[in-house]
Write a structure and sequence with these properties.
By secondary structure, the chain is of the alpha+beta class. Helices cover 40% and strands 24% of the residues. The two termini are 33 Å apart.
Length: 267
């Protein structure tokens, strides 16, 4: 719920999902459940107070949040890792393919297609699981799930078939520098593997390990999506996102621009 400028991080992610055509959203939470529920719920009292004081723009903004999508919540009772969190969605998902968006990864594709939409379109071409990737510096591979492209098949545009995947490898052991950056479209068969998944990197149930197992019975692809990705879970990533989003805002850009110009003079 940490705001970037004045919008909670999760709202950027929900906006991307909605703009990609998703209508039903399940948020897997830890302790912030009520605060999120309240944020995305309708508040008739607040709406009519804003209406009475003629703050119609503000009223429309809070209605827009509540009308974005059907949002449901489930609480992950123990912090056992990303794979375990996704497993909490099993009965919600049923037997359909589904998208996963991680709460720390914000992707901005100015004027272009949202990252998730790009993945969904790639899914529609191959009807197989797709992980969203981008190239990261070689000395940062240890922070991510890293993909191994198949040597037997050629990339098709931005999509490439995978032969393996590894969670948080050492730099010298990484099969590439293409990192999974918080966007996935998965087939429901992933749950068969998540249910049996033993802890991996960091002692956690890793989604990456189950996707690697899924590759034995189904094709899995990586899609090198377009857009700038911010890691809002990292202090520096959060600051970058705040500055760059503020520079896009009409009410802030001039002031911030002038301030930044003055500030760099002092360096
Ligand atoms: C998670 C995933 C990892 C992925 C990363 C993207 O790791 O396990 O595969 O590359 O998100 O942000 P975490 O950042 O939760 O450690």
């Amino acid at each position: 719920m940490l705001p970037i400028v004045d919008i909670p991080t999760i709202q950027y992610i929900i906006k991307e999902a909605v703009a990609s055509g998703i209508e039903e959203i399940l948020i897997i939470t830890n302790s912030n459940k009520h605060c999120m529920e309240n944020h995305f719920d309708r508040s008739y009292e607040l709406e009519s107070r804003l209406e009475e004081s003629n703050k119609l723009e503000e009223r429309d903004m809070i209605c827009e949040i509540a009308n974005m999508a059907n949002i449901y919540y489930v609480r992950q009772k123990e912090p056992k890792g990303l794979g375990h969190a996704i497993l909490c969605a099993k009965s919600f998902i049923g037997n359909d393919p589904f998208a996963v968006l991680l709460g720390d990864d914000i992707v901005e594709n100015h004027g272009g297609k949202p990252a998730l939409k790009q993945l969904i379109e790639a899914y529609n071409e191959v009807e197989a699981s797709i992980v969203g990737v981008q190239t990261v510096p070689e000395d940062e591979v240890y922070k991510y799930g890293i993909v191994e492209p198949s040597k037997e098949s050629e990339p098709v545009g931005r999509r490439v078939k995978l032969s393996s995947m590894v969670e948080k490898p050492k730099c010298e052991e990484a099969p590439s520098n293409m990192a999974v950056l918080g966007r996935y479209v998965l087939t429901p068969e992933i749950f068969n593997f998540l249910e049996m998944q033993t802890p991996g990197a960091g002692g956690e149930i890793q989604l990456t390990d189950s996707i690697k197992s899924l590759m034995i019975s189904q094709a899995v692809y990586a899609y090198d999506f377009e857009g700038i990705r911010y890691d809002a879970g990292d202090k520096f990533g959060f600051i970058k996102a705040t500055i760059e989003y503020a520079l896009e805002r009409e009410d802030l850009q001039n002031k911030l621009h002038t301030y930044l110009k003055e500030l760099v003079k002092t360096f």
